[in-house]
Amino acid sequence: MSGLTLPAAIEAVVIGASSGGVEALRRLLPALPAGLAASVFVVLHLPRGRGSLLAEIFGRVCALPVREVLDKDPVLPGTVYVAPPNYHLLLDSGPQLALSMDEPVEYSRPSITVLFESAAALYGPRLLAVILTGAGADGAEGLAAVQRAGGCCVVQLPADASVPQMPASALQRTSADFVLTLEDIMSLFRQLPRSSA
Amino acid sequence: MKGEGDDGAVGDIELNLLVEAIYHTYHYDFRGYARASLRRRLKAALHHFGCATLSQLQSRVLHEAAVFGELLEYLTVQVSEMFRDPGYFLALREKVVPLLRTYPSLKIWVAGCSTGEEAYSMAILLREEGLLERSLIYATDINPNALRKAEAGIYDAAKVPEYTENHRRSGGRSSLSDYYSAAYGRAILDKSLRRNIVFSDHSLATDSVFAEVQLVSCRNVLIYFDRALQSRALDLFHEALCRKGFLGIGLRESLRFSSHADAFVEVAREDRIYQKVDRA
Amino acid sequence: MSNTPEPSDELRSLRALPLLPLRAGLCFVAAVCAVVLIAWLSYDALAERTTTSLRAQATQQVLEELRQLASTMKDAETGQRGYLLTGEADYLGPFLSAKSTLGTQLDTLRRLVEASPEQSRRAGQVADLVRQKLDELEQTIALRQSGDSDGALVLVRTTRGRALMDRLRELIAQMEQMELLTLQQREMEWNAASERTVYVTLGGALLLFVLILFAAYMTSRDYRLRETETWLRAGLAGFNRRLWGEQGLQALGENALAFLARRLEAPIGVAYVAPGGSRHVPVAGHALSPDGGAEVRAGQGLVGQAIKEARLLHVRDLPPGYLALDSGSGRGDVREVVILPAQVDGVVHGAIELGFLRPVQPAELELLRRVSEAFGVALRTAKDRARVLELLEETQQQAEELQTQQEELRVSNEELEEQSNALRASRLQLENQQAELEQSNVQLEEQAQQLERQRDELARSQIVLIDKAAELERSNSYKSEFLANMSHELRTPLNSTLILAKLLEDNKSGNLTEEQIKFAQTISSAGRDLLAIINDVLDLAKIESGRVEISREKTSIAATTDALVRTLRPLAQEKGLRLLCEIEPGVPAEFQTDPLRLGQILRNLLSNALKFTDRGEVALRVSSDSEARIDFAVHDTGIGIAEAQQEVIFEAFRQADGSMHRKYGGTGLGLSISRDLARLLGGNITLRSRPGQGSVFTLSLPLTGAAEPAERVPGTPTLRRAVRDSAPPAAAAIDDDRVRLSGDGRCVLVIEDDVAFATILRDVAHEMGFACVVAHDGGDGLACAARHLPLAILLDINLPDQSGLGVLDQLKRDPRTRHIPVHVISVADYAQQALERGAFGYAVKPVLRAQLVEALRQMEAKSASRIRSVLVVEDNVVQLESVRRLLGADDVTIVGVDSAQGALAALQSSTFDCMVLDLNLPDMSGFDLLQQMAASEDVAFPPVIVYTGRALGRDEEQALRRFSKSIIIKDARSPERLLDEVTLFLHQMESSLPPDQQRMLKAARDRDTVLEGRRILVVEDDVRNIFAVSSVLEPKGARIEIARNGREALEALQRAEQSADQAIDLVLMDIMMPEMDGFTAMRRIREQPQWRKLPIIALTAKAMKDDHEKCLAAGASDYIAKPLDVDKLVSLVRVWMPR
Question: Does domain A12-190 have CATH number 3.40.50.180?
């Protein structure tokens, strides 16, 4: 794992997960070091029409503050933002967070692709994008956009994922920089630069 | 903070030019819309019109009115459902309706009503509370097509089970099936609900207040606006509301960007319902 | 010891730890000192005794030596005697040995006694004596030996020997005596030393015994302490062990209690645990009777007290029966009770109560104290753990739930994927179809583009048409302007023509033929006709372009008619007609009007009458049927006019019959001019006629002369927003007090354009001690009101620049002025509208002086009253009382009445700031009451808040809205609204409110309920104007309907009639429109009986007086000139909007 090195100056991390994602994220998010310099955005497919407990659940295990996004929130470093159920999460210049009720993409709202595409446009090569376990094909398109913009693409090894379709779809659509097990992604996360402050 | 490529600076300039062009030509003002969503929708539009760049699309929009008509469908969101966020409607019933009862007649503004689901939900709620007959619901939107659909009040029957569940959770006192009849995969809403709804064209970006109302319900519209336009819209609502009138917004929206933010107090925090108060 | 010092302290104290505890150390030091002392004392005593004994021994020795000396001497003497007697040498042995030992003995003796000088001296004497004796002995012996036995015997028989011996014996006895004395003294000393030694030994032993005892006590105590500590520690450890592990609160309570009960042999006990809050529930009992151990709260009972104070409670003398001990064989009461709160960081988490049959030991109490914290910690930990567990469980549950949901989602995602596969297949199919469709689409698009092009062309030509129409409109107005300006250019050449023709006709030089003279006469006559026509046309144009000026003055009726009749009589006589003039009784001698124009009209009417009458008479009859109007009727017995023609004859350039003016001459413009002039004067001309039976033209003029609409000065286009604070018109100003105002507020504002009347009003005000400011038009009036904030305002309705009702409305909408009472004075009856708009009172001209005085007095009283008063009309006593309670305040007087009659009476007798009205009253309904209030002029109409338990129908509400801006339906939350609204109305002195609140109130008033939801039909073809009007009215809550021309307007009205809630409340009617213009439309509207009262406000494009007249004639209720002034338009709409 020491062979893996991240491109410097990662300002944002976007993570997309679907089925099995709660468990995967509950393992993954604690690996984010306190005082992280980058901002982290998470889209997890959830059934609509229920209050989301994700921020609460992840907040218990994560060293960073975890927030469910409120429209037009400013983006702060070292903070994990979770897309609210039934809203697309987008990043807008500022940077600030934007929500949308547009049609579901790949049957999903929030959609991983929607987040990834807007993040790619905003952060370009300073973006780390991660596709985790899940069914369906959401995120593949978005990961391609991240790659086009020069961002770093990470896909969970399908064999390691509890539901392999989504990482597999992403790999079909794009060549990821890293294809890793969850453990390895955790080590990767531990390498993320901390803020100097 | 811009990335490289088509989505970058040039894309932004093109986007700004396009919305300016639309404003000057068709008087639809998308200039204050949040860019990220707009960019996404225009991307879909580019694909639809077979244009490579927004500049190409702009040229077509400027010279072909029909293209704009089509484009408008892309620019305006038409995603809605009945009794969306049942908690909101439950809070309306419990915390707002008791005060609305003291008015001999009611005016309610459903701003950004899209295809009308929210307006009909409001009408059903008012009927259940015995207030519909003395109410007038102004349901406004900028998309004439959506307004037409709203006036027709015909929806996909496949969604009715979900609506029914929402309605039940919103504290519904009757069965939703009392208000629609379904056939051929469509559900048409009771015409009598229509009597108290006025669907009309109104833009929160350019138009002004048209009536004094006791309740403004504008949910998941502000998310499409940038902060300045949010402020304008919220100021309009403030102006439109009578003394001690109520304002409901989307669950993930806030009043932070209104100059009148301090003229509202929370009535139901989680459900984002506020009341206009006199500032000291 | 129970306190654990901080680790660093512990280390430091360990390093510096003394070998022994201080007290024990001191003890040990004391013991060592005692032993040393005893040893020293013993040694001292011993040494002394040894010395004493040695001395005694020495004395004994001395005695011995002395005895031996004596004996030796005796031996020596004995030997000498024996020898002397026998002469045997054997007897010399003792003597010889004595002689040898005697030296030694004497030395010894001398040595022994050398310490005592006396003895030494004696010893010396002894030695001398011994030597003398020995010498004597030796002499004797030597004598014997020499054989001189007798000499020897003689020598022996001498006393010298015996004396020596006696002296020796005596000396020895003395020495012995001396030595015995010394010995005796030594014995005494020894005895004393012995005694001291005994004492010292005894004392030392005693001290050591004490020390040993003390040491034993200390050791015992330490041991006991250590044992207790060990016991406590073991107890604490045991207790802790019992609480180890993840135990629930109940288990903790049980274990703790069981342990303590066994450890302390407490026969009975209860454990309480606080699961949260101040409630402590018993979780375990030890030998507790079933009824024991109820739930306690802090402060309740002994247990509660212990919990509250958070300290151990030990109760000794328990009352019998406090806690009963039950065994199989009997019952007994416990003697002592210990209650132990489990406390950590000042928070009590539970308690244990133990009962004892014996006194409780302090160590036991200590153990209890110590376990308190451990128990508390355990409980707190258990509680925290329980919470964490709960949270964990919750999280787990949530996570599981989410997992389940995700699983569902996955399944549905997979389903969706399958579906999308299926979709993909069908999409292929669709794509094929699409290709086909695209082809036809291309065709369609081409057609569409073609259509679009056609549409664009149409639009372009429409724009051209609109431009043309506008041009036409412009040229139409240019026409009038042009004509008016042409007078000079037309008359100048015509004048010269006429003069020259006249010269020719006169034939002064006589060189013209008859025929030539006739020609000249014809030229002259034709020229005069032409001039008449031109004059008429110009007159009309002048009137149309608004250039005619009216100057009113007192006009004598008789003088005017006389002059007319005088000038026309010759013409009448010429035609053989009678010309009469009758002035009926009751007609005033003079009135305000423009005498020139009056003459012009009457002359025109009379000359027309003379013209069209061939026989009979022409009569001018002046009458005054009402107080306000005067009629000049011109009767003739001429040809008469057919019904159909009667309207036409007044229209310019048309005559009853084309042949008419050929027969009678004239331009036919005369009547049009007359009618226009009549309107300028505020009157009109009507016609009654039947063909063949003559006609009656009646000019009807107002007596006071001020005919409002016609009076406005057109020509200068109004600004969109009138500048209010403009300088007052200096020309017409009468002398008022505006520059002399003292600032004491006793000032009255008069807004009245009639200088004479304004002067009267000013004088009345002065008489009553008010300063007075006079404004001559609405704009100045509003400016003065805002600037001077007068005590009261007297307002005329007919003002030159705008309607007084509009002024009233603006006064009432301005927060600075809305509290000022306004008394309206007018010629016509606008009482209803004025009062509804908030006028304080109303009077119709002519006004009696007394009325004015009274009005001013009332207004002064109203302004002076600072206490706000609220009239509450409510028949239910309980309700009335509750409303009174709700609204009562220091500066608010609540007057309650229980009937409509009472309300009317109250309103008549005093003025109220606000009225709260229940609709259900015993004597009449609230509606009727409001209507009566509106109808009767002597009742003030305060703002009304309708407070009703009845749900209102739409019509009912509409009806109520006419009178009340605020309607509250009684419900759970209505009292707060009532309070709110009343407070709002009572805040009439708004200028003293904070600016924010004022702004808020202003904003609230801007959405005036008068326009709220009212439907206004805007009939206008110009989109920009539609936009302008809508943007003004829609924000006020009005609903705008649009019609593009008169025909559409009629259709819209018809359509609206079909449903009650669509009914049009007011029409804004443009005049110049395609298809059907505004005049026609208005006439057609008025033809329908149901629309007779529909308010129509005409929008006149030009400042043409004639337009205004025509508008009113066509049925407009009022008019407003474009470009539109926003405030005026709103005020006007407000005024005319039916309530």
Answer: yes
